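Section 3.1: Structural characterization of target chains.
Under the original work plan, the team committed to producing a structural model for every single-chain target entering the pipeline before any wet-lab resources were allocated. The record below documents one such target. The sequence was received from the expression subgroup and is listed exactly as submitted; it comprises 265 residues.
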Amino acid sequence: MSTQEYEDILYEVGNGVARITINRPKSLNALSGVTMVELTRAIERAGNDATVGVIVLTGAGDRAFSSGGDVKWEKEGGLKDRHVGVNPRAVHEAIRHCGKPVIAVVKGYAIGMGNHLAYFCDLTIAADNAIFGQNGPRVGSPAEGWLVTYAQRVVGVKKAREMWMLCRRYTAEQALEMGLCNVVVPLADLEAEVDRWCAEINSLSPTCLKIVKASFDADIDYLRDPSPNHFQKMMAPDFYESEESKEGAEAFFEKRAPDFMQFRR
């Protein structure tokens, strides 16, 4: 199937599998507004395709699943109006609501949104070169609400807070021990492993899988924010116009440690 209709992703369907690839390898598959919109549409498209039994989400190349939000895009104001424009939550909502198992296939970095996008997938298969972790407080780019809260369902309360508050990096084996992934395999064996998992899923009843997935998702429905007044909007409505936000992005591009001490209050 042609992938020319997308700018930032590749979309292919074959043997009952929809493969969605974040195709921005030069930026370690960082996610811009265009990328997020295309991912959401592609996941919804695969979810509505009767020929598809399982969805595989991955990143182009071996260096990264995704390094998270595109800092350049964020610095230029990409997230300023995210509650009325591009909303990263839409990708996660699409994963949860598509009704079909979604497998994150992680090679290299899964950082920031790359990490929580991977742990929102139903299953995660990691290569032995995978590195997981959060980045928001390190670069002044806050995540909020159930994107954060769901982490404690995956790895436990204390480990989730460590991951989000300290912004540490975790190897593939550490991620496996934490519960961030289901299995770790050598990079050279990754595609064969993914094919095995997809074939196993496609041998099962699609309706039963849909019901099972909905049952799991019902357990976390209450985590979704009950109103459009999200935490960042309530607690720091002008954050993306603040010097604190600018400091995180500028430090990233200048390859230095940010000075956030000046913003404590």
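The chain has one domain: 9-187+206-218.
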